[in-house]
Amino acid sequence: MSHDVLLLIYKYKHIEIIMSIQNNTQSMGSSNVVFNTQTRFDTTYVKTKQGVIKIVEIILDLLGFICIQSSAFWSNWRGVYFNVTAHLGLWFSVILLLLYMFHLIEKYHNIKWLHIEMIGCGVVTFLYLIASTIVVAFGTATYSAAGFFGYLAMVLYGFEAFTKFQAIKCGELAQGSRVITKQTHVTTP
């Protein structure tokens, strides 16, 4: 068995221990997840791809809301529904942005944040599809502009829901770091 490889994989929560024996060499590796549970303000999140997406979502939510509010028909049921959707997306994105910037996602890492974000973004995507369609169908210029911003927001929320799904599937962390260490020991027969 000196040329054969025996591989034993043992998983326990966030620690993976991998042992392989090949040509009298023993190799052990482990992956530890490190969370800094201190609350701190950090603006580096807004420079990441996910941070930029959240900021653009917030801007699109506000632009759609402003377009509906500046219309003479702002109290129409279509405009009210669009504004409710825009506010839901706005508050969802602002709260998550602040949670990431203050590292509260990392502090409360036991909560399934990626699942919450994926479901929330999926719901807002569906609501924006309906809201944008009904305001564009109304036909006024301001409603059409709001619908345009709503469709753009819908695409971004849908993209974010997809990326969160991919992150869940790959076992990524919402916030924090994974430290991988490897040790090799040579044994003699």
From TrEMBL:
Its main location: membrane. Residues 45-169 form the MARVEL domain. The chain crosses the membrane at residues 55-74, 80-102, 114-135, 141-159. Keywords: Membrane, Transmembrane, Transmembrane helix. Pfam families: MARVEL (PF01284). One of its GO terms (cellular component) is membrane. It is found in: Membrane. It comes from the Eukaryota. It is a multi-pass membrane protein. This is MARVEL domain-containing protein. It comes from Pieris brassicae.
